[in-house]
Each structure stands twice: as C-alpha cells, then as structure tokens.
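Q: Got a minute? One more chain.
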Amino acid sequence: MAFKFTTPTWIAAALIVASGGGIVALAAQAATDAPAAVYWSDGDSGRLPDGTKFRLHDVDSPETGSMKQRGGAKCESERIQGYEAKEAAVELTRDKTVKVAQSYGADRYGRQVVDLEVGGVDVALTLIAAGTHKAWDYDGGDRKPDWCARQAGVPVAF
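A: Always. Here it is, folded:
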C-alpha cells in the first residue's frame, strides 16, 4: 500500500514565498561584499557609507539647487555644471573603496570636512584636474568661485 502525502495549497505557497526570501537574502549578502557606496548630494558633499555627512576640503563645485533657493545656483549654467560635477564625483567613486585620508572637523553645517582617497588618489584633486570642480580655500576666506561667468553674454533658451 502506497502512502500519498498531500500538502494544503497554503503551505505550498508559504514554502515558495519563504524560499524566495532566501534568494533575496543571498542577493543582499552578495551586495554587501561589494564596497559600500558614497552618496553624493552634490559635487562636493554627501554621506559616507557609515552615514557620516561630509564636505570635501579645499574644493568647490557648482550648486545644483534651484535659483529660488537660498544657497542654490546663481544661474542656469551653474545648475547644469553642478549636475556634471556631481556625476563626475559619482563615477569616480562608484564601486570603489573610498577612504577618509584626513578629517578637519565639522563645518558650520555639522558636516565633516575631509580629504577622500580612492586607490591612494585624492578625490578632490582628481575632480579639479578634470575641470568639474575648482580649488577653494574656504577656511582662508577665499571668495566662492563664480560658476556663472561662463554664461555671461550667452542667451538662455526658454
């Protein structure tokens, strides 16, 4: 005599869902084996993988915020350049191990002012050399770079 085992449909469904959860857990584990990503809020600041807010030391990038915002871009050209600067920073650090080479303490917004390195190469200097960022001695009282000078005399299409 053969014994036939039947499983209620709800148990079979629960087993399928549970096995799917196991696959998701394995995928999440694989993702954690890769370097944790730096989040860039703009071209010169963001969050480190541990959640620490940071700002790059001695460098400035164009603003990406609306011209209506306080502290936002001063012209449309600056906003465009700002998105280019952010993309350059993202690409430079994507899937890479990013190291804080030096920390200078907190700025007036509570962000850690830092030098970052990727593979022993200074992130800020690389971005400056690429032309998307400018050197800026904020602590020394230098004026913020004028990102709208390039737009002067250029008609803006609406």
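A: DSSP finds three helices and eight strands in the chain.
Q: Perfect, thanks.
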